[in-house]
């Protein structure tokens, strides 16, 4: 996996492994979500955020909604680039969008998340997640901030 950084959204390249394919020989649905989770975690790390420190401070990222839109199948042995594009508003939630592209650029799937930062003590979403991410990131631009 190779992270990239430019004016394009953050992206990692992953190999579709044979044990991730289903009986129809394409990537199983749950792995699309896992690939998005992996790309988001890599993006957060590349931005310089310590997830361990975030958790130690009593905050945890949570997904509130995940939507997958399939375009072209991914099969065992394929390589897929998974982008990570963050969208911020004024509320307690933010969006992260992943485009999953075959190595030739063909769109395989889109994943959209509505997420937030959970105060692990009160079990409530914090009011300004963008402020927390920005304060913790060495490179907040990778997080769209």
From TrEMBL:
<protein>
    <submittedName>
        <fullName>Acyl-CoA thioesterase</fullName>
    </submittedName>
</protein>
<dbReference type="InterPro" id="IPR050563">
    <property type="entry name" value="4-hydroxybenzoyl-CoA_TE"/>
</dbReference>
<dbReference type="InterPro" id="IPR029069">
    <property type="entry name" value="HotDog_dom_sf"/>
</dbReference>
<dbReference type="Pfam" id="PF13279">
    <property type="entry name" value="4HBT_2"/>
</dbReference>
């Amino acid at each position: 996996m190779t992270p990239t950084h430019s004016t394009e959204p953050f992206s990692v390249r992953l190999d579709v492994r044979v044990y991730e394919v289903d009986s129809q020989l394409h990537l199983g649905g749950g792995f699309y979500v896992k690939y998005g989770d992996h790309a988001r975690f890599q993006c957060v790390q590349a931005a310089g955020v310590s997830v361990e420190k975030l958790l130690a401070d009593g905050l945890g990222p949570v997904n509130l909604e995940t939507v997958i839109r399939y375009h072209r199948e991914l099969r065992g042995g394929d390589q897929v680039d998974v982008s990570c594009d963050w969208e911020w508003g004024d509320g307690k939630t933010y969006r992260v969008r992943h485009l999953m592209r075959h190595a030739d650029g063909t769109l395989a799937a889109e994943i959209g998340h509505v997420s937030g930062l959970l105060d692990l003590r009160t079990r409530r979403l914090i009011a300004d997640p963008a402020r927390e991410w920005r304060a913790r990131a060495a490179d907040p631009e990778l997080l769209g901030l």
